[in-house]
């Protein structure tokens, strides 16, 4: 099974999507959108922009990795 986006609705909060990995685990959750259409547009945006560099703004000076 391939990874998938799942659109969810919560009354009074709107729509959001989650990205589910091939093992069934949620690996990303979006902001809430007022409309179903804007949620689908958010998914399209992630698909278009997913090939992006990582910018790590944490201080890992004490990290062993």
Describe what you observe in this structure.
By secondary structure, this protein is an alpha+beta fold. It has a single domain (4-49), classed as YegP-like (Double Stranded RNA Binding Domain). The protein is 22% helix and 28% strand. It has one helix at residues 36-49; strands at 4-10, 14-20, 26-29. Strands 1-2-3 form a 3-stranded antiparallel β-sheet, with helices on one face. The mean pLDDT is 92.
Keywords:
65 residues; alpha+beta; 3-stranded antiparallel beta sheet; Double Stranded RNA Binding Domain; 28% strand
How would you summarize the topology of this molecule?
Elements: E1 4-10, E2 14-20, E3 26-29, H1 36-49
Antiparallel strand pairs: 1-2, 2-3
Elements, N to C (H/E): EEEH
| The CATH superfamily title | YegP-like
Helix content: 10-25%
Q: Class in CATH? A: Alpha Beta
**Reading side by side through the largest sheet, how are the strands ordered?**
1-2-3
Radius of gyration, CA atoms, in whole angstroms: 15 Å
* Biggest sheet record: 3 strands, antiparallel
Gist?
With 65 residues, the chain is an alpha+beta fold. The chain has one helix spanning 36-49, and strands spanning 4-10, 14-20, 26-29.
């Amino acid at each position: 099974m391939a990874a998938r986006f799942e659109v969810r609705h919560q009354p009074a909060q709107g729509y959001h999507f989650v990205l589910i990995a091939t093992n069934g685990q949620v690996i990303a959750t979006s902001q809430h959108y007022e409309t179903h259409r804007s949620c689908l547009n958010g998914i399209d945006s992630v698909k278009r922009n997913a090939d992006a560099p990582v910018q790590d703004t944490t201080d890992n000076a004490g990290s062993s990795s």
